[in-house]
Amino acid sequence: MGVQDVLSRKTGVIVGDDVRRLFDYAQEKGFAIPAINVTSSSTVVAALEAARDSKAPIILQVSQGGAAFFAGKGVDNKNQEASIAGAIAFAHYARSLAPSYNIPVVLHSDHCAKKLLPWLDGMLDADEAYYKIHGEPLFSSHMIDLSEEDHADNIAETKRYFQRAAKMNQWLEMEIGITGGEEDGVDNTGVDSSRLYTQPEEVFAVYEALAPISPNFSIAAAFGNVHGVYKPGNVRLHPELLGKHQVYAKEQTKSSKKHPLYLVFHGGSGSEQSDFDTAIKNGVVKVNVDTDCQYAYLTGIRDYILNKKDYLMSSVGNPDGEDKPNKKYFDPRVWVREGEKTMSAKITTNLKIFHNVNTL
Ligand SMILES: [Zn+2]
């Protein structure tokens, strides 16, 4: 018995109720799925390879900046054109490739703050166009993050977007409370620390607003999360608070499920095993990992360049002879591959930490 036994589509990009089945299964078995921020075909490959080798499902996600990078930094992004085009390109690329890896893959877009909503609108337009032809959205899920707005506004606007997504049976992740730190130009480094911890009543208000529309939504409820890696001691995570959200929601709904809420862990880089264990025990199904993977991708390329420096200073001529060609050292398939290997190794470690190995 494994993930693939509960899915209607066993490999490739999964959508609709399969996403919920995956998360239900993860909650039941006590593991979480890493959501890897990808910015290129190379980082997609690194993530897929790690998941395949660990026999695990995976979530690939693009941020607004990552999506623009997919399009190319030379494309103007003033009305989110690059972020929309890049996100669509990413989704088609991943959809084409995922079946070759024989694992289930969730396609997701990361934080979308109020000022970035035209990006989400553009992706939803593409989802609807895809839905007309294929009967399913292009992306498995999106995130809307209006956590910087007033609580009532956040819920009302999120509900409006969820009504649109639910027509395609698409998953929606929302954020309540604030993730500290800085990511993609949204700087929350100076925010009041009380807003970094969400209350059970606030979380349940989200559930009450969204559950009548569709069960396919998750909540990133802040519990002291911060984007980026900080020195130990600088971040006080309280994943045990997530248990209180579940208990409160269970009392209110009289749900027979152990965990009525699907929860998401943001800012996973640099956290402790015990934090992940507590979070997963309390119904976290998705953990975002970005910073650690960025650094891991660099290390492979960095070490290659430093070790092979004398073979990289000119296209011909190295310590073996002044007429020796260096093509086999500067071919991007050689040095970019080194980054893929180290990023993949990092994701393999994350899969172990989240108890998501041999889960297919
Ligand atoms: Zn985040």
From TrEMBL:
Recorded GO CC terms: cytosol
Residues annotated as binding Zn(2+) 2: 145, 175
Organism annotation: Wickerhamiella sorbophila
Glycoprotein in keyword set: no
Binding sites annotated in the UniProt record for Zn(2+) 1: 111, 227, 266
Associated pathway: Carbohydrate degradation; glycolysis; D-glyceraldehyde 3-phosphate and glycerone phosphate from D-glucose: step 4/4
Positions annotated to bind dihydroxyacetone phosphate: 228, 267-269, 288-291
Gene Ontology biological process terms from the UniProt entry: gluconeogenesis; glycolytic process
The keyword Protein biosynthesis is assigned to this record: no
Pfam entry (one): F_bP_aldolase
Gene Ontology molecular function: fructose-bisphosphate aldolase activity; zinc ion binding
Catalytic machinery residues: 110
Cofactors that this protein relies on: Zn(2+)
Cofactor note: Binds 2 Zn(2+) ions per subunit. One is catalytic and the other provides a structural contribution.
Protein's recorded name: Fructose-bisphosphate aldolase
EC class: lyase
Family: Belongs to the class II fructose-bisphosphate aldolase family.
Transmembrane regions listed in the UniProt entry: none
